[in-house]
Write the structure tokens for this entry.
Amino acid sequence: MKISRRAFLIALAGPLIALAALNHWVGEAAAKSVPRWEMGRVRASTDASVLALGNSLIGVGFVEDSFDQGMQVDKAHGAINVAMGGSSAVEQLLMLRYALDQGMHPRAVIFGFFDFQLTHPLEYATRDLIGNRAMLYYLEPEYARRFYHLSVHDRLEFELMRHFEVFADRGLVWENVERFRRALGQQGMPPEQSNSMGRAIDFAMLEYPSAPEFVAECGRASRNPLIPSVAEIARQAEAAGSKVYFVEMPMPPAHVETFYDEPAWDGYRTHLKTMLGDLGATYVDASHWMPDESSFIDPLHLSWEGSQAFSRRLGEHLQMTELTPK
Amino acid sequence: MEWITGAFDYLGGARDEAPPGFPLTLGNWAFWALWWAALTVVIYVFSGQSSKFIYIDF
């Protein structure tokens, strides 16, 4: 049976209208996404004296009120934590630039990290630009592209996708599907350990599988420079008059004993301190600050009580060392 | 079962002739617009992520 051109075009209009409607709906939902919410907080907190950046480790580990108490600053001029789960130094650089562009003049910029985040080159595919990384599609996308690598295919895809919210923020829809999928997967099964960021077992996958592999990576990473986005964070924050602190985040005792107590990590740490020192930044080794396993909720993240204790201590540390008002 | 298979084959474009008694034809353009719109939404919803780990709650 032949189909008329008119019928074909009307049938084609169905999926096109569906895509347009999805684009509108995702655009509205994206207004409440984590990056845009953090940008809103930045706009409302331009008097903040400390800007905390990083991924979920500092996202949950840095408690603004506890840090302010440790630093002995009032909340109105205290810290703002704009760290985002699953983000890299590129997104953090964009958030720093956004804060400075909004007129924020922080006395200090804190960047929390773990393992090899500061030197591990960023190679993405468009499938990785999901969740909080979706901000790469809409916050200074051309500028950000200098700091991570995409294949030719993915560059073309990126250029097409970034003009449509239905593609740029597709993770907003997917996360609901994923929640549903996990809920179904839990039917009749023993409950999985999870917290505000997701399943604990997923975070164990971010650790190195063994000490020998970690030591080998220390050797390789000790020859690597800082990735450009990390160096830019240090340069641009310093140019804005901020003191810059790179904080080696507290890790659970098992992680510390297995990986950070290796002499090879000491060598890598010295390498980092030298490179960051050359940029005028200060290295804070907080990896051993929380020696109690109960201060952590999974293989990487601090618990609420652990976060409060760490944040207060970090505030005290900065207050006692270099940020004391002269 | 054979009829259901035939109906799905027809809807998916694997065969040109609908099974006997199938209520829709290619001339029913409104149905096909809705059908492809629904498929577009389903494909979109389930094609968001291919990596094995995603932060969904933070």
